[in-house]
Write a structure and sequence with these properties.
about 5% helix, Folate-binding fold, binds zinc ion, single chain, two-stranded antiparallel ribbon, mainly beta, about 80 residues
């Protein structure tokens, strides 16, 4: 799999580290925290994920199709607004 970094261009996936689901929102209640930490969906289709490009140390939000692994839109996580 190859992923496009907005700063370095298209690179091999071995340069990236998966860092989690970008669609999760940290809950306000303690009761919901266990589900937030331990429960994960296994979606089929397009999914937003956090990836770290270990070469340039940039956190990215990558849309990736979970069946084909095809990357979609890739943006730097710091440009992301809360709730998007
Ligand atoms: Zn990069």
């Amino acid at each position: 799999m190859r992923l496009p970094c907005p700063y370095c261009g298209e690179r091999d996936s071995r340069e990236f580290t998966y860092r989690g689901d970008a669609g999760l929102v940290r809950p306000d209640t303690e009761e919901a925290m266990a589900d937030y930490v331990y429960l994960r969906d296994n979606p089929l289709g397009w999914h937003k994920e956090y990836w770290l490009h270990t070469v340039c140390r940039t956190w990215l939000v990558v849309e990736r199709h979970t069946q084909t692994h095809a990357p979609g839109a890739v943006t730097a996580a710091r440009s992301r607004r809360a709730g998007s």
